């Protein structure tokens, strides 16, 4: 379980946002913060808290903090969009500023994604809204994954519950699709040599998927370099520009028409260990 201080620190942050700050405004005869401003401040507090936990590698405390947010009544979409997405972005900023190594960024971002995946399987039953779920991964064998985490954050901001498998095998991707409901899977292909047999791999992913309406998105440098027609891989979308990919993905799977009307809990024993 998480260290005992995690609970009281979280309650203290809540008290500061909900009680102390409004009283300070009154004491100094300042305009009371709007509910939107308070919500923004609360989100920043949540992000700062989990960034600190990520940097200290307190894995169980990270998980318990997210559980606490759910117990407070935060929707899973809000946690993914307003807590996890900015956290992943902040980890990227620390890398850009040379305050974290590439290995640190990859490891910590991967753990955040594992927790998001665990939340989707174990806690998503508490969410009241239908959310599109996207699985992102490099084609097995690719080594460069950091760009996927940036892309994941962009999809999160566009309203997708986005999970990243940074080093999955084909077997593991098949298992993910067979045991969890996903609306779409996106594969990043960085090398032209990885394109050989891609049509068969796409068909295999569709056959393994629990969702009969799985969409398959392909992207990456390989599609900029190849001279082959982009329609020959059996995917629903092939795109190398991130913003264009998100816009087209939204058209392929608008929220109201998603394959999922609710999340399906993964069977016991298949969850991700947070430690």
UniProtKB/TrEMBL annotation:
GO molecular function, one term: metal ion binding
Stored InterPro entries: Cbl-bd_cap, Cobalamin-bd, Cobalamin-bd_sf, Meth_synthase_dom
Annotated B12-binding domain residues: 131-261
The organism's place on the tree of life at top rank: Bacteria
Protein name: Methanogenic corrinoid protein MtbC1
